[in-house]
Amino acid sequence: MDTYRVIIRARFDGLTDAQRQTLGAQVDTCELGFNEKGSLAYDASLTWFTFRFQVDADDDAEAQIAALDALPYPLRNETIGVTDLTEIGERALRRRG
Questions:
Q1: CA trace torsion 40, 56, 4, 27 (10° rounding)
Q2: Number of domain units in the chain
Q3: Exposed, middle or buried, 3 (CB in 10 Å: 0-12/13-18/19+)?
């Protein structure tokens, strides 16, 4: 099983008033980083956001699904980038090689 880092860039879509209030109250506390819980970054307009997530999975499709499942807000126009950390290590070793 490999470790994947997933970045989702998308638009919020159909937030409830309660979700808007919660997100608005936390806008200045956004922390970027990769972890199993995920980190959400956005601005006060609550339009676009970035969600970073790290997961152990068998393949990148499984990693994408896990990240989307972890995100508790409706979204649209998403782009998803997945990086296999194992491949990064192997490429670095080949360059030094």
A1: 10
A2: 1
A3: middle
> Is the Cα dihedral 96, 2, 55, 59 positive or negative?
positive
In a domain, 21, yes or no: yes
8 Å CB contact between 3 and 56: yes
The SS3 call for residue 88 is helix
Does any domain span residue 96? no
| pTM to 2 decimal places | 0.82
67-79 per-position pLDDT tens digit: 999 988 999 999 9
Strands across the sheet with 39-42, in order? 39-42, 48-57, 2-12, 75-84
- Contact (CB, 8 A) for 15 and 4: no
DSSP string, 20-34: HHHHHHHGGG-----
What's the CA gap between 69 and 73, in Å, rounded? 10
Structural domain contains residue 97: no
